[in-house]
Amino acid sequence: MSKQSLTKSGSTEQKSAILLGTGLAVASLILVPAVAARIGLGSSFTGALRIALMKASSRATHGDDAAASPDSGGFSCH
Questions:
Q1: 3, 32, 38, 42 - which has most CB atoms within 10 Å?
Q2: Angstrom distance (rounded) from CA 68 to CA 3
C-alpha cells in the first residue's frame, strides 16, 4: 500500500467518525428531548439517554480513550 492511499483511508475514516459524532450529538441535543416530550418519558431517563449519546459521540470522534486522556479534549466526570 502506498503512503497516499493510507492518507486517503485515514482521512475518510476521520471524516466518517466526525460525521457519526455530529449525528449522535444532534440526536442527543435535539431529537431525544423532542421524542421524549412527545411520548412522555421522564426527565431522568431522558437525561441519562442524552448523557449516553454524548459519551458515544465523544468516543466516535476522539477514540475510545477520550475520557482517560487529559490532552484529548474529552470530558470526564471525575
A1: 32
A2: 31
In whole angstroms, give the CA distance from residue 26 to residue 61: 14
* The residue to which cell 448523557 is assigned: 51
DSSP summary character for residue 29: I
- Return d(Cα 50, Cα 12) in angstroms, integer: 27
Which residues have CB under 8 Å from 26's CB, separation 6+? none
pLDDT tens by residue, the chain, 78 residues: 444 544 556 688 888 888 888 888 888 888 888 999 999 989 899 999 999 988 988 888 888 754 555 554 555 555
